[in-house]
Design goal:
By secondary structure, the chain is α/β, with parallel strands linked by helices. The chain has one domain: Metallo-beta-lactamase, Chain A (4-Layer Sandwich). It is built from 7 helices and 14 strands. The strands form 2 sheets. The chain has a 7-stranded mixed beta sheet. Strands 7-8-9-10-11-12-13 form a 7-stranded mixed beta sheet.
Length: about 240
């Protein structure tokens, strides 16, 4: 699997980083994991072709994680003239939220007015599903007021990538990350605890319980960015590529 970090920032664009978005390529397909509002910018910078993306998997319904989907609609309709189906997979309420935001941004823009089929699927906690050669296991995590928020365990060809989504510490992260080759984990703050988010000190304390071969931080806030030179753990940045 090849994972390209399209956007590794927080909701505020701290440090000039783009909203959360990761492009995953397997032997048979290309998908996006989260698609924040700035994702089209990041995909263009990374030289990735949207026409080759089969599906988008959304961890939770905050704009910095799903807000780029209306722009996928817009680009597919007017620029690339997409005809290939697009599958959108996410928490309950994804379809309603996407359609509402798309119409608010560009009145009349909705899935029914596109020249390509849009298929919605709803995530179920603990229920694994397959996209061609990729198995995805969503596990519910704890993210503030989000009713539905998920981390993902993604497996293909005997390799495993885990993605925390946005979450505070929860023991769900232990089975999520068990024996995975790569963990992409959010880390908004360095010392301060913020409801719904992880911080660096917590990850240092708990990392022996996370069964990952490699741990890489994402979704850094200002406090974390100010500490970059002193961190023991790896940090992802926009444009980084991991192959496993």
């Amino acid at each position: 699997m090849k994972l390209t970090c399209v956007g590794t920032g927080d909701a505020f664009g701290s440090g000039g980083r783009l909203n959360s978005c990761f492009h995953l390529q397997t032997a048979e397909q290309q998908i996006l994991i989260d698609c924040g509002s700035s994702s089209l910018i990041g995909l263009e910078r990374c030289g990735l072709n949207l026409l080759e993306v089969d599906a988008v998997v959304i961890s939770h319904l905050h704009g910095d994680h799903f807000g780029g989907i209306p722009y996928l609609f817009l680009e597919g309709k007017y620029l690339s003239h997409r005809t290939r189906p697009l599958t959108l997979i996410g928490p309950e309420g994804l379809k309603k939220r996407v359609e509402t935001v798309a119409n608010a941004l560009y009145p009349g823009l909705s899935a029914k007015n596109l020249d390509f089929p849009v298929n919605y699927q709803v995530l179920e906690d603990g229920k694994a599903f397959w996209l061609h050669d990729l198995q995805i296991l969503p596990l519910a995590v704890t993210h503030g007021g989000s009713k539905y928020a998920y981390g993902f365990r993604l497996e293909s060809g005997g390799k495993i990538i885990a993605y925390s989504g946005d979450t505070e510490w929860t023991d769900v992260l232990i089975p999520l990350t068990c024996q995975c080759d790569l963990l992409i984990v959010e880390c908004f703050n360095h010392n301060q605890s913020v409801p719904g988010h992880l911080n660096y000190q917590t990850l240092l304390r708990e990392r022996t319980r996370l069964g990952c071969r490699r741990l890489v931080l994402t979704h850094l806030g200002p406090e974390m960015l100010a500490q970059l030179d002193s961190l023991e753990l790896d940090v992802a940045k926009d444009g980084d590529v991991f192959e496993i």
